[in-house]
Design goal:
Elements (H helix, E strand, L loop, with lengths): L21 E2 L8 E2 L2 H11 L46 H5 L5 E4 L5 E5 L7 E2 L29 H13 L4 H15 L11 H9 L8 E7 L16 E7 L1 H10 L12 E5 L5 E3 L15 E9 L2 E4 L5 E3 L1 E6 L4 H5 L6 E5 L7 H4 L2 H18 L11 E4 L5 E12 L2 H8 L25 H10 L2 H8 L17 H4 L4 H26 L1 H16 L21 H8 L2 H5 L5 H17 L4 E2 H17 L1 H5 L9 H4 L4 H8 L7 H17 L6 H24 L7 H9 L4 H16 L9 E3 L7 E5 L11 H8 L4 H13 L23 E3 L1 E7 L10 E12 L3 E4 L1 E5 L10 E14 L2 E14 L11 E4 L9 E5 L3 E5 L1 E3 L16 H4 L3 E3 L26
Parallel strand pairs: 10-16
Antiparallel strand pairs: 1-2, 3-4, 4-8, 5-16, 6-7, 7-14, 8-9, 9-17, 10-13, 11-12, 13-14, 15-16, 18-22, 19-21, 20-25, 21-22, 22-23, 24-25, 24-29, 25-26, 26-27, 26-28, 27-31, 30-31
Helix pairs in contact: 14-15, 14-16, 14-18, 18-19, 23-24
Length: 995
C-alpha cells in the first residue's frame, strides 16, 4: 500500500438519524456510509488495495522490486463504531487477485514502473467475445487493397477534397469557380477536372463509409400542469436536441489506428523506481466487478459549454456536447487530434422577460438539460453493466465496459449538473458563507439520503441542494455527478481566481489606499510596464495595457506571465507573495506528471496563498473568501488522486473545440437555420478525417502528391525539397505579432531539447568575421572566435580561454553565414504540444523585426550540467547566429552577451531569479561565442521596474533589454523540465504557464 499521507481529517458532526456514520479510512477520502456493506463496495470500487509489490515478486524475475523494499506502514485506521457491523462478512475480491497482478517498467532506463489492475486487464478476444491466448494473432479480417481509394478515384481526388473542404474551407460558389477555371485549362488537352462542381465534391465526401456516425434528433416539450388560463409561451414550445450515438462514437475512437499507441488499456498505478513515489499523469479510474474480468474499462468523459457565434447580427448561441474517453492520453486530448468529439447540440429554451425568472421556467430548464443527457447517453446504459465486444485499432477485439467518469465544464454549469444552489461548492458540503471550512464531500448516496429526510426549503438553505431536480447520473450505474466533476484550470484558476479575483483586488486595494484620482496614474504606470515587456514566443502583447472589455482566456494567461513584475513597488510585499504562491500553485497543478513531492509542494503553495491573501481582508478590500472558484483550489490534491494530471481535463480543451466544431462551421453557413448546415459540415469533416486515418494506416499517404507523380515519372525531387524549404521559412516569417506561438510536433521524443539554425541564411548580412565585428560593433570578435576554436578543438584544456595566448589558438578569416533565427525543439508535455509532448519555438536575433525594431532574444545556456537547476544555467542574449567551416567541420555558433545572476538564490518576494548584463573591465560588455549545442531554449526577462527611475512611457518592447539594467528571469515561460540529477529548472520546480 502507498504510505499514508493523511492520518485523518476532522469531520463535522452529523445527525445520526439522517446522515451515514461509517467513515472510509482511506487517506484523503471523506466518504461516509450507513453500513459495512456500503463501505466495502465503495472500497472495492475506488480504493482497490493491492500492494506495490505483490507476493511472489522476490522469486519472479518478470516482476519488480522485492519484499525488502516494501513499505511497512502502521495501521492508522480508526476502529469501527459498534453500530457499524450489519452482519456482512464478505471478503475483498481483490485480496484473491493480488498475486495475479502484473507490473512492469515503463520507458527507457527503467525509471518508472506500473502496477496493473488484475481484473480489468484488457484481454484480447475474437469477435464473439471468446478470450484468445496472449500471443494469438489478430482475428482474420477482410484486407483492403493498398491502392483502393474508394469512394475517391485516386489520391489526387482525395487530397483535393480534403484541402478544399477541411483546410481552405472554401464556399460552394468559390469551389465552382475554381473547378471552372481548371476545366478551361484542361480543355485543350481533352482532360477532365477531378470534380464537376461543388455538388459532385460533396457527394463523394458524403459517400465515405468510414467514420460515419449519423446525426439523430428528438424533441422535448413541457408536460406539466398549466396553472392558469394564460400559459407561458415556453410551455407550448417544442425543443429540438440533435445528437450522435455516443456508443458508436466511442467505437470509432477505439478503432482509430492513430490512437493505437496512445491508449491505456489497463488501469494502473505508476511509481518512480528511484524512490517508490506515486506518480499521476493520464486519466484512468479503478473499478472492481467480478462480471467484468478480462474486460477493458472505458471511462467516458463528457464536456459541455454554451458558446456565442454572433453578436453583431443578434445573439446567436449554441450548446455543444463533447465526448472523449479516459483511455486516450492527456497529450493526445490536448493536442486536438480528434480524441474529443462533438456528439450533440443541447436545447436552450428561451421565453419572455415576464416568465424568464419564474421558478417553473428555471426548473424546466434544469430538468430539460438532465433529461436530454439521459436520452443522448441511453445507448451506454446496458454496456455499463454487461461488457460488449469492440474492435480496436490494433485489429484485436476486446470486451469493453463503460463508466461515466468525468465531466468537463465551468462553475456555472457545475451548479446545473450537480443540482446545487449557486455559490455553494459542487464537491463538498461546506456552507456558502464559509466555504473553506473542512466538510464532507458530496455524494449521490448522501444527496439521496437528505432528500428523503428534509423538505425542499431545508435542502436549499442547509445543504445547498435543489431537491426537485433529478440529475441524469441517477439513470446510470456507478455514476455520481459530484465525483464526475473534474478540476478546471481555465475557469477556476486563470479566469476566476486570477483575473476576476486577484487582479480586481489589487485595483480595489490601490483605490482604497491612494484614492481614485491618484490610482489612475498608478494603473497607467502598470499598463506601461506591461506594454514595455520584451517580445517572446507565445507571449501575448498588450500594447495599450489591459483596459479592454472582452477578456479571453488567452488574455488572462498572457497577463499572468508578466503581472507580478508590473505591480511590484506599487503594492505591499505580501500582495506580491500572494501572487507568487498562487502562480506556483497554478504551474504545479498543470504539470503533465504529478508526483507525491509535487503534491507536497501544491499543499505548501496553497497554504501560503491562504496566509498571504489575508492582506486584502486586513486592508478592508474584501470581506470574505467564500468564493466557489477560489475555494475549488482546496480540492485539487484529492482531484489529482481521482483524475490524474488536471491539464488533461481542462475546459480549455472543449473551448478550443468550439472553434473547429461550432464557430468555423457557423461562418461557412448562410445563417438561415444554421444548425442543420453546421451538423452536415461536421459530419463531412469527420468522414474526411476518418478517411485520412484509414489511408494513412495503409501507407497510401506517404510523401506528397507531387513527389509521387515525380516518382512515377522517374524524375528527381530536389526542386521540390528546395521549394518546401523556402515555404517553411516563409511560414516562419509571417506569424502574427500577437500569436508567435511556436509549433506543435507529433514526432516521437528522441531528446529533451535540441537547437538548430534555420535553413535560410541572410545573404545581405556579414560574410566574413571582420564584417561581422563591424556590424555588431564588437571589434574583439576575431580574437573571441580564435579562442572559441581552440576550446572546440581542445576540449580537455582546462585553462581559462582568456589566459590562452593567441599564438596557440587557430586563426580563421574565411566565409561565414549569418542567420536571423534558430529553431529550438524540446519536450514540453505540459504545454500545447504534439501527441508525444514535443514542441518547437524560434529564437530570434535580427536587426529588424516586423518593421518595428531589432529583436535579440535571450537564452538559457547549460554551463554546469552537474549543478542544480538555475545554478547549472546562465542567461545570455543572442547578438547573432552564424556558422562557418574549419578544416571540413561545420561550426554553428552564436555571439552572446552574458548576464550575471544577482544573489545566490531567487528573490524572496517574487520567487524569480534576478540577472543583469555582465560587464568586464573598463565597463565593456562580456561577449562570447558559444556552440548552439550548449543552448537549452529561449529565456524571457522582465525588467525590475521598481529598482529603476526610468519612465517606461516611451519605451518600446524592443528597447527593453537595452534600457533597463536588472531583470527578473520570467519563470512562468519556462514550460519544460530541465533535469539535472532530478532537479528542475526552476528552484521551486514549476513548469509552464496555464492552458
Amino acid at each position: 500500500m502507498p504510505p499514508v499521507r493523511d492520518p485523518g481529517r476532522s469531520r463535522p458532526t452529523q445527525r445520526a438519524d439522517c446522515v451515514p456514520q461509517l467513515p472510509c479510512d482511506e487517506p484523503g477520502c471523506n466518504r461516509w456510509f450507513r453500513n459495512l456493506s456500503g463501505l466495502t463496495q465503495h472500497k472495492r470500487t475506488y480504493h482497490p488495495s493491492f500492494s506495490r509489490y505483490p507476493e511472489g515478486f522476490r522469486n519472479n524475475p518478470g516482476l519488480l522490486g522485492s519484499v525488502e523494499h516494501e513499505d511497512h506502514v502502521a495501521d492508522r485506521s480508526s476502529p469501527l463504531p459498534d453500530h457499524a457491523s450489519d452482519g456482512y462478512q464478505g471478503e475483498d475480491l481483490l485480496d484473491r487477485e493480488r498475486e495475479a497482478m502484473s507490473a512492469k517498467f515503463i520507458g527507457p532506463g527503467s525509471k518508472v514502473y506500473r502496477n496493473y489492475h488484475p481484473g480489468l486487464n484488457a484481454r484480447k478476444c475474437d469477435d464473439r467475445g471468446q478470450f484468445l491466448p496472449d500471443d494469438a494473432p489478430p482475428p482474420p479480417r477482410a484486407e483492403k487493397v493498398p491502392n483502393d481509394w474508394n469512394p475517391y478515384r485516386n489520391r489526387l481526388e482525395f487530397e483535393l477534397a480534403d484541402f478544399l473542404f477541411t483546410h481552405a474551407e472554401m464556399s460552394a460558389k468559390k469551389i465552382d469557380m475554381l473547378l471552372e477555371i481548371w476545366a478551361a485549362l484542361l480543355l485543350e488537352s481533352g482532360g477532365q477536372p477531378l470534380f464537376m462542381n461543388h455538388a459532385d465534391l460533396y457527394g463523394v465526401i458524403d459517400s465515405t463509409r468510414v467514420g460515419n456516425v449519423r446525426w439523430e434528433n428528438f424533441t422535448i416539450q413541457y408536460a406539466g400542469e398549466e396553472r392558469n388560463n394564460d400559459p407561458a409561451p415556453w410551455m407550448s414550445d417544442v425543443y429540438d436536441v440533435w445528437f450522435r450515438d455516443p456508443r458508436e462514437v466511442i467505437h470509432n475512437i477505439l478503432a482509430n489506428s492513430r490512437f493505437t499507441d496512445e491508449l491505456d488499456y489497463v488501469p494502473y498505478r505508476e511509481y518512480d523506481a528511484s524512490n517508490d513515489q506515486r506518480r499521476w499523469q493520464d486519466f484512468m479510474i479503478l473499478g472492481d466487478d467480478p462480471t467484468t474480468g478480462g474486460a477493458t474499462l472505458v471511462p467516458v468523459i463528457l464536456g459541455s459549454d454554451k458558446t456565442t457565434v454572433s453578436v453583431a447580427t443578434g445573439q446567436t448561441d449554441y450548446y455543444p456536447l463533447y465526448l472523449s474517453i479516459g483511455n486516450v492520453r492527456n497529450t493526445v486530448r490536448r493536442a486536438h487530434r480528434n480524441a474529443v468529439v462533438l456528439i450533440g447540440f443541447l436545447a436552450m429554451p428561451k421565453t419572455t422577460r415576464e416568465h424568464a425568472s419564474t421558478p417553473a421556467f428555471r426548473r424546466f430548464k434544469r430538468q430539460l438539460f438532465h433529461s436530454s443527457l439521459t436520452r443522448i447517453l441511453h445507448s451506454l446504459c446496458r454496456p455499463m453493466k454487461v461488457p460488449e465486444t469492440v474492435l480496436f485499432g490494433d485489429n484485436y477485439y476486446r470486451r469493453v465496459i463503460y463508466a461515466l467518469a468525468a465531466y468537463i465544464t465551468d462553475y456555472e454549469e457545475q451548479v446545473l449538473l450537480s443540482c446545487i444552489v449557486r455559490n455553494w461548492c459542487p464537491k463538498c458540503l461546506a456552507h456558502r458563507d464559509n466555504l473553506d471550512e473542512n466538510a464532507l464531500r458530496r455524494s449521490r448516496e448522501h444527496c439521496d439520503t437528505v432528500i428523503e429526510e428534509f423538505e425542499l426549503c431545508k435542502l436549499w438553505e442547509t445543504y445547498g441542494i435543489v431537491g426537485d431536480i433529478v440529475p441524469f447520473t441517477n439513470d446510470f450505474p456507478r455514476a455520481d455527478i459530484h465525483q464526475m466533476l473534474s478540476p478546471d484550470i481555465l475557469h477556476q484558476l486563470i479566469k476566476g481566481s486570477f483575473k476576476d479575483h486577484l487582479v480586481d483586488w489589487v485595483e480595489r486595494y490601490l483605490v482604497h489606499i491612494h484614492g481614485k484620482s491618484e490610482v489612475e496614474k498608478i494603473l497607467d504606470d502598470i499598463d506601461r510596464r506591461i506594454a514595455a515587456v520584451a517580445p517572446f514566443t507565445g507571449l501575448r502583447r498588450f500594447p495599450q495595457g489591459r483596459h479592454f472589455k472582452q477578456w479571453t482566456g488567452d488574455n488572462s494567461k498572457g497577463l499572468m506571465k508578466v503581472y507580478i513584475a508590473a505591480i511590484e513597488g506599487h503594492v505591499p510585499k505580501d500582495v506580491v507573495r500572494t501572487f507568487r504562491a498562487f502562480l506556483e500553485f497554478c504551474y504545479l497543478v498543470r504539470r503533465n506528471v504529478i508526483t507525491e513531492q509535487t503534491l507536497t509542494e501544491i499543499d505548501d503553495a496553497l497554504s501560503r496563498f491562504h496566509r498571504f491573501r489575508e492582506v486584502f481582508r486586513n486592508a478592508g478590500v474584501i470581506e470574505t473568501f467564500s468564493l466557489p472558484r477560489q475555494h475549488a483550489m482546496k480540492h485539487y490534491p484529492y482531484l489529482i488522486h481521482q483524475f490524474g494530471a488536471p491539464n488533461g481535463l481542462c475546459s480549455s480543451i472543449t473551448e478550443s473545440k468550439h472553434v473547429k466544431a461550432v464557430k468555423r462551421p457557423y461562418r461557412r453557413t448562410n445563417r438561415f437555420k444554421a444548425l442543420g448546415q453546421m451538423i452536415l459540415i461536421n459530419q463531412r469533416l469527420d468522414k474526411l478525417t476518418a478517411a485520412w486515418a484509414d489511408f494513412q494506416q495503409r501507407g497510401m499517404l506517404n510523401g506528397t502528391c507531387l513527389s509521387k507523380a515525380f516518382e512515377v515519372l522517374g524524375s528527381h525531387t530536389n526542386q521540390i525539397s528546395e521549394g518546401q524549404d523556402a515555404a517553411d521559412e516563409g511560414d516562419e516569417q509571417t506569424a502574427s505579432y500577437e500569436e508567435d506561438a511556436g509549433d506543435t510536433l507529433d514526432d516521437p521524443m528522441a531528446i529533451n531539447a535540441h537547437v538548430s539554425l534555420t535553413r535560410k541564411y541572410q545573404r545581405a548580412r556579414a560574410k566574413n568575421v571582420g564584417a561581422l565585428a563591424a556590424e555588431l560593433g564588437v571589434p574583439e570578435i576575431p580574437t573571441i572566435l580564435c579562442r572559441f576554436l581552440h576550446s572546440q578543438l581542445h576540449p580537455t584544456d582546462t585553462r581559462n580561454p582568456e589566459d590562452i595566448p593567441l599564438y596557440e589558438c587557430p586563426f580563421f578569416d574565411g566565409k561565414i553565414r549569418v542567420y536571423n533565427s534558430a529553431c529550438s525543439t524540446f519536450f514540453a508535455p505540459s504545454d500545447l504540444s504534439g501527441t508525444h509532448g514535443m514542441r518547437r519555438e524560434y529564437i530570434r536575433s535580427c536587426p529588424m523585426w516586423r518593421n518595428e525594431g531589432p529583436r535579440y532574444d535571450c537564452v538559457f545556456v547549460v554551463t554546469d550540467p552537474q549543478a542544480d537547476g538555475m545554478r547549472g544555467l546562465d542567461v545570455a542574449r543572442i547578438l547573432c547566429f552564424f556558422s562557418f567551416k574549419y578544416q571540413g567541420t561545420l561550426f554553428p555558433c552564436a555571439v552572446v552577451h552574458w548576464f550575471d545572476r544577482i544573489g545566490d538564490g531567487p528573490d524572496t518576494a517574487t520567487g524569480m531569479w534576478i540577472v543583469r548584463p555582465s560587464r568586464r573591465t573598463h565597463n565593456l560588455r562580456n561577449i562570447a561565442i558559444i556552440h548552439i549545442n550548449t543552448i537549452y531554449r529561449a529565456a524571457h526577462l522582465i525588467p525590475v521596474y521598481s529598482s529603476h527611475n526610468i519612465d517606461p512611457r516611451g519605451i518600446k518592447p524592443h528597447h527593453s533589454y537595452d534600457t533597463f539594467h536588472s531583470f527578473y528571469v520570467n519563470n512562468t515561460l519556462i514550460t519544460t523540465h530541465l533535469k539535472s540529477h532530478s532537479n528542475t529548472l526552476w528552484n521551486s520546480g514549476m513548469t509552464g504557464a496555464p492552458i
